[in-house]
Amino acid sequence: MTIRVALCGNPNVGKTSLFNVLTGMRQYVANWPGVTVEIKEGVRNWKGHQLIVTDLPGTYSLLSVSMDERIARNFLLYNTPDVVAVVADALSLEQGLYLLLEVIELEVKAVLVVNAIDEARKSGINIDRQELSKHLKVPVVLTSAVTGEGIHELLDVIVATASTESKRILFSFSGEIEAAIQQLKSIIETQIGESASRWFAIKYLEGDPETVQRLAELTIPPGSLKTQISKERYEHIRLIIKESVAATSKRLSLSEAIDHVMTHKFIGIPIFLAIMYLAFNFAFETVQPLSDLLDGFFTYLAETIKTRLGENIVSSMLADGIIAGVGSVLTFVPNIFALFFLLGVMEDSGYLPRAAFVMDRIMYTLKLSGRSFMSFLLGFGCSVPAVLSTRGIYDTRERIVTVLSVPFISCSARLPVYLLIASVFFPRNQGSVVFSIYLLSIFMAMMSSLVLNRIIFKGQRGFFVLELPRYRLPTLKNLALYTWLRGKHFLVKAGTIIFVASIVLWATMYFPDPHDVTNSFAAQIGRAISYVLKPLNFDWRASTALFFGVAAKEIIVSTFGMILGAEPGTLVERMSHLFDPLTAYSFIVFVMAYVPCLATLATIRSEIGTKYVIIAVIYSFFAAYLMALVVKTIGGVLL
Questions:
Q1: How many CA atoms lie less than 13 Å away from 500 in the CB half-sphere?
Q2: Which of 118, 193, 210, 418 is the most exposed place for a label (fewest CB within 10 A)?
Q3: pTM of the model
Q4: Which pLDDT tens digit goes with each residue over 38-53?
Q5: Strand, coil or helix: 60
């Protein structure tokens, strides 16, 4: 027997962790809302049954306001599973039970999964699941995705629930609301049929945008009873919790004590900046010797190939093309993995959502919310998932502004460029220089949001609702998985996109004159572009690197590796005469801000449309040009 199971729950309740335990899938668990914006499926065989488990996006309600809410609610409404397992946090049941009441109104077979029960016991919270089940009229299972407690019982309950006949369980509202529901229900049945007509009636009274749009004009104004419906649900939930949950301790929890400092309105932001500064210094200066070893190894390998094979087209392609191109990027793997490891520590511990919380005050002045800052934080890894994460932003205007501003955030693809330039021209202050670029990228993203909001979209101030996850001690397994999944993306790009690009680059540099790169096709392209970039003092070599870097930013390093490949020494030594320090810094500022990579542009097109791709290309190029020129001009005056 095949049983279709949907996991539904608020963000940060351990829903995806539970999904991983149930199915064995290695979907990384992130600690903020909107991280699961796509539907994930896994399979579990249990006692002769095949369970197809679907992990729905974390959502606080089934209203169709944000993208993640729409995905979750439409799946339950139009792809109704055999069993819906609503996951609630044992330490914060109220919001989870609210979502459960909404799910029950769909008249589906539901199971309440109270997760993190081990942490609840440690906090002195006792949950009577029999009492919960009696009031809610659905099976209740206490679980811990961390220890594995209750997992087998949950599988048994899912199978048993799927095998029993569906029971009609309805939450009864007060007379006024019930009368309105019945009045609307009879009208809705004539428009869209009997199925879920009560649910649609309730959603209409709550002012759900999609429901209001779908139904013809009705006698009762949409959203007229939204406040009363919400109030009655919460009153019912509080009565259930009063009967079912007992807390033996009212002491301030460790998370609450730490939050008094970490989320303080005055020192919260300086703490965030200090933590990020220490992380960057460790990732770049402490790990740098490993990068130097890799650089030396690839230089030795290229020289050995040329010595063994002699000067010919094959040895040139291998040494000057593949090894110089791919090797120059792989040199920075230790730094990138170290940075991802430290970001993993901050995320797995629950700190990064707090960073979004403390930044919300600043984002509010930019007519954005902390949700936008979460997308900015994701952009440190890769702009593609950062753009996708904007699906969780409620306001369409704010979402478009965020999508257009996210590419200014320094992704991991730009990091090899920063490290290369910093190691050559700022060897004593690599960490500080790279940290300054990351700060500048956040500043650029925020200023971009301000400009777009004030000039183009004229937006309203955003709002931000976030339930902060508890602090947790990061597990080595989770950190290793986090680091590998993000670092793997970098390695895959090195073995695919950068490998192919390196061969194409080598061909444009080898022909038509194999003995003089200055006469190559690549040089001709670079010289044509250098006229535009002349005020920034970027020569044809830098211009060529920027041109090919549009495909993927790591290719900038590959291009330098190939252009300078004929010169003796390591890549760092060969780069030293390319710029002066001021021009070098303005170059990495330009790289930070200019045209997003092709993968990001494709994602922008799929998310908000082709016209915004054109806007993103033109807008980012001019912003990068202006910022680099400002750095060059001010630096020239001061120095």
A1: 6
A2: 193
A3: 0.71
A4: 577 888 999 999 999 9
A5: coil
